[in-house]
Amino acid sequence: TDLARIRNFSIVAHIDHGKSTLADRLIQATGTVADRDMKEQILDSMDIERERGITIKANTVRLDYTARDGQAYVLNLIDTPGHVDFAYEVSRSMRAVEGSLLVVDASQGVEAQTLANVYQALDAGHEIVPVLNKIDLPAAEPDRVKAQIEDVIGLDASDAVLISAKSGLGIPDVLEAIVTRLPPPKGDREAPLKAMLVDSWYDAYLGVVVMIRVMDGVIRKGDRIRMMQTGAVYAVDRLAVLRPQMVDWPELGPGEIGVLTASIKQVRDTRVGDTITHERRPADAPLPGFKPAQPVVFCGLFPVDAADFEDLRDAIEKLALNDASFTFEMETSAALGFGFRCGFLGLLHLEVVRDRLEREYGLDLITTAPSVVYRLHMKDGTVRDLHNPADMPDPTHIDHIEEPRIKATIMVPDEYLGDVLKLCQDRRGIQLNLTYAGSRAMVEYDLPLNEVVFDFYDRLKSVTKGYASFDYHITGYREDRLVKMQILVNGEPVDALSMMVHRDRAETRGRAMVEKLKELIPRHMFQIPIQAAIGGKVIARETLSALRKDVTAKCYGGDATRKRKLLEKQKAGKKRMRQFGKVDIPQEAFISALKMD
Ligand code: GTP
């Protein structure tokens, strides 16, 4: 296809502002999917979503559109994941296209969570067309929202397209704006092949499917290709475009987007951002900016029932096939038995993986405290990475400890600024910058990643009622006074609850932790001390008093059914508990104890 007749774009929107509805309308309006098949299509894409789990590409589609100038255009819409954990994936997909539609709900206005993505689109050099959706709603205020887009984002919104994705109003204007206001791609058909690996996923029938954006050269079925970062060589079995299901395609040239299969066994063998070239006549340099996704948050996953260990192994191996950014290795814990130490891109990633293991594979899991990667400088001059506080060596051998720091950017309406500053301050943050855009504040903080992985994002959302946007990147490592804090229940250390903390925060954390555990651990027939300690020194202590009488006593003699029911309920509760020495600790205690504040 002639470059001048191609437009590649993504849609940037806050959740629920209508991104999926608009994508469906564009598919329909261009006749890509016949009206009567539309429902089936949507169902299909839901299957893909379920299969894919996190980086959903259900809205990636190639559209044919004949514009008002009478010319036929190819429009490629790429879907992008919206969460900060996947910032790197978002930035890669943004680099695969030249423009974005910024969809804003005209009854809600600009909301915070889209801002990070808009800035990524601007970073990637995109042309941006503002689209105001839901103008059918009586509460729609297009003029106010236009002004807001100009104030907050600094984009000219005077030519914003007004639409109702629901009724279809304005959809032809969106298609026209894509053609007239977004630039065509650039590229050299005669140059050696250079294609960006935008995304990849595992398909039960096809194996690994790789989405590519061709920059230079031409790729065809049967070509032998090389992944420039991993060095692996494959033959292209199948080349296709998405409409939105796969349709075989003879070749893809500069500016085009499509998918290929090449008997690649696992998603792990494909790296988002890698450059694909021909084995013969390769490009001399890969595309710039490649970095492999590095797990930054680690935690242990253990089966509640030790007998489920093999099932957990199977489930983890299956998930890992489809998720290159998730790492795992076996771990044994004195208290929890056999399990896995797993690495994630961030907390949401962790939660998604844990949820899938529990829901799709029916496993009951204990998750240990999330931890970042600490750098230990030993007295003998060696440097070690610490992924797990349980592996902390004798502190007398350590010279100093470094932890990862981030630069966080938070955008928030003025009225919540005070709470946000307090939250950052409480998390050992150092304020770098504070500016205003209209009634919105933009604040930048230098923060320890360790203080963010716990529940920072949840806290931020709750203190700002969801109106804050948050984005971060790791800036480097810095030395600080970090210690390992242990929790002892009835004198036994519970390794799953040990964590690295800043020395100045240890007492507060320790106190909060033992207080919480006192509430969460059921009383036993004996008294149970619950302590937090650094080295041999106890810094906080609570005592759980002994149970005085049989809980079933209040049921009197007569009511046998009720008594049995109560005992059954207790038994069911037991199943989700772990024994530590003589003490049963419910699984919820691990999760709750780690969620602070
Ligand atoms: P996520 O998939 O959760 O990110 O949301 P989204 O941005 O894709 O939004 P989606 O298209 O699912 O739309 C969210 C809701 O808004 C749905 O209930 C839609 O039916 C509704 N909606 C979308 N467009 C319009 C519109 O133009 N007018 C009205 N009244 N409702 C709309």
Automatic annotation (TrEMBL):
What EC number(s) does this enzyme carry?
3.6.5.n1
Q: Which GO terms describe its cellular component?
A: plasma membrane
- Report any one BP term from Gene Ontology: positive regulation of translation
Regarding the membrane, this protein is recorded as: Peripheral membrane protein
* InterPro entries linked to this entry: EF-4 (IPR006297), EFG_II (IPR041095), EFG_III/V (IPR035647), EFG_V-like (IPR000640), EFTu-like_2 (IPR004161), G_TR_CS (IPR031157), LepA_C_sf (IPR038363), LepA_CTD (IPR013842)
A Pfam family cross-referenced in the UniProt record is LepA_C
Presence of keyword Hydrolase: yes
Name of the protein: Elongation factor 4
Organism lineage: Bacteria, Pseudomonadati, Pseudomonadota, Alphaproteobacteria, Rhodobacterales
